[in-house]
């Protein structure tokens, strides 16, 4: 997108906010369901849509960003604009890519990740826990993967590793993403058969994992 096209999109959002009575009544919180919906539609376009679908859904998600920043620009106490958002983003990405912008060397993806994590840790020094900043609204499976990574950072995971080993011994660990999908569907079907809530079951277990992580940190 050219800068002219992006500027026009920003101006279009501003006019809609000024002149559309529905849009004028919307705030950040009221926009959340639309943001989630548009994000899921973008995922669908990436995984199974056409190039035209992808382009459209990226535009819809961009509209959400423009919408939020237009609302923010009119805040009476702490306003900011899309330029402020973009400026902060550029500064953060430059800090987190020192191998691109600051003379560091990274010949492997592993080294890139190491530099990224070091920069991120320096930015978040005020955080008291590795769990700070983890979005609890993530889907439970995505949250599980996130928390397992955090658990590894504080040395919580021996029991989980043992469980994986035991599962491997009986051939219960899938060897591909396709097999993983089959296994997850099988487990979900078993939960449904027994009248259990699979989502709740995982989230309750994740709360226990969070507690274990906080105990290890203290």
From TrEMBL:
Limits of the NTP pyrophosphohydrolase MazG-like domain: 28-101
GO terms (BP aspect): dATP catabolic process; dGTP catabolic process; dTTP catabolic process; dUTP catabolic process; TTP catabolic process; UTP catabolic process
CDD domains hit by this protein: NTP-PPase_MazG_Nterm
Pfam families documented for this protein: MazG (PF03819)
Gene Ontology molecular function: any one: nucleoside triphosphate diphosphatase activity
Signal peptide positions (record): none
Name under which the protein is recorded: MazG family protein
Provenance organism: Microbacterium stercoris
């Amino acid at each position: 997108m050219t800068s002219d096209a992006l500027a026009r999109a920003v101006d279009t959002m501003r006019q809609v906010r000024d002149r559309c009575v529905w849009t004028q009544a919307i705030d950040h919180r009221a926009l959340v369901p639309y943001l989630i919906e548009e994000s899921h539609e973008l995922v669908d376009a990436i995984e199974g849509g056409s190039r035209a679908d992808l382009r459209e859904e990226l535009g819809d998600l961009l509209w959400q960003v423009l919408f939020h920043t237009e609302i923010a620009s009119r805040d009476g106490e702490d306003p900011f604009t899309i330029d402020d958002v973009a400026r902060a983003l550029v500064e953060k990405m430059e800090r987190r890519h020192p191998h691109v912008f600051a003379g560091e060397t990274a010949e492997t993806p592993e080294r890139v990740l190491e530099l990224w994590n070091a920069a991120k840790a320096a930015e978040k020094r005020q955080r008291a826990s590795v769990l700070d900043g983890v979005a609890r609204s993530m889907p439970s499976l995505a949250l599980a993967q996130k928390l397992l990574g955090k658990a590894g950072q504080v040395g919580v995971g021996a029991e989980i590793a043992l469980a994986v080993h035991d599962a491997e011994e009986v051939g219960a660990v899938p060897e591909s993403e396709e097999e993983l999908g089959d296994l997850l569907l099988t487990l979900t079907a078993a939960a449904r058969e027994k009248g259990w809530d699979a989502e709740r079951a995982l989230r309750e277990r994740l709360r226990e994992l969070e507690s274990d992580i906080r105990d290890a940190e203290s």
